[in-house]
Write a structure and sequence with these properties.
With 201 residues, the chain is an alpha+beta fold. The protein has two domains: 70 residues, Orthogonal Bundle (Arc Repressor Mutant, subunit A), CATH 1.10.10; 115 residues, Arc Repressor Mutant, subunit A (Orthogonal Bundle). 52% of the residues lie in helices and 13% in strands. α1 packs across α3, α5 packs across α7 and α5 packs across α9.
Length: 201
């Protein structure tokens, strides 16, 4: 397998993120033999896993491959996210939160179908902030990870239960993007309430 195909596999592994990719899917998309694919994956594994300058590693989970961060840095990542607070969420983060909140459990692919853009980076940050959580896997080809909201999500937005979310005009999941502004309004109201509370203290 030539270097172009190897780098294409690397990019694909990055794009699929935590969902990983099945070996059978790689064989199909690359149109390569199992032997050639094994060679390519071995080269990628050596590139990441054996390079002390890289924070990433290629790991196999059953019949899937994923790019993950190296466990040696786990304590560093946990310390970082334990010392910062979720003070301001980006519009992208709010969009993803709204989609998950109204359609949980939901896969990353379904989220991206609604948004029309890659959402892997946003999901990683929301997972780190404990606003969303992995909720098992969907029983479909590839068994993609399902995402749902957390108790901290409810607390962060000042909700007692999921039923207190603002009602959407559109029930269709594919039309939810038209109503995300309702969710953002709720977020802004929450932040304004926090600011008022700070001024009164």
């Amino acid at each position: 397998m030539n270097i172009k195909n190897i780098t294409a596999i690397e990019g694909l592994l990055f794009l699929v993120g935590d969902d990983g990719i099945e070996i059978e899917q790689l064989l199909t998309v690359c149109s390569q033999s199992q032997q050639d694919l094994d060679v390519a994956l071995s080269k990628l594994k050596a590139k990441f896993n054996d390079d002390d300058a890289s924070a990433l590693q290629l790991k196999r989970f059953g019949t899937q491959y994923k790019l993950t961060t190296k466990s040696i840095h786990k304590g560093f990542y946990e310390h970082f996210f334990s010392t910062i607070k979720v003070q301001q969420l980006s519009n992208a983060a709010l969009e993803v939160l709204a989609i998950i909140a109204y359609n949980h459990p939901i896969t990353r692919a379904a989220i991206e179908d609604i948004r029309g853009v890659n959402s892997d980076g946003v999901l990683r940050k929301l997972l780190m902030f404990d606003l969303v959580t992995e909720y098992g896997r969907e029983q479909s080809p590839g068994n993609p990870v399902l995402f749902s909201i957390t108790p901290y999500f409810l607390d962060y937005f000042g909700l007692h239960c999921i039923e207190e979310l603002p009602k959407l005009k559109n029930a269709s999941m594919l039309e939810i993007s038209d109503d995300i502004d309702i969710f953002m309004t709720k977020y802004q109201e929450q932040k304004e309430s926090e600011q008022l509370a700070l001024h009164h203290d």
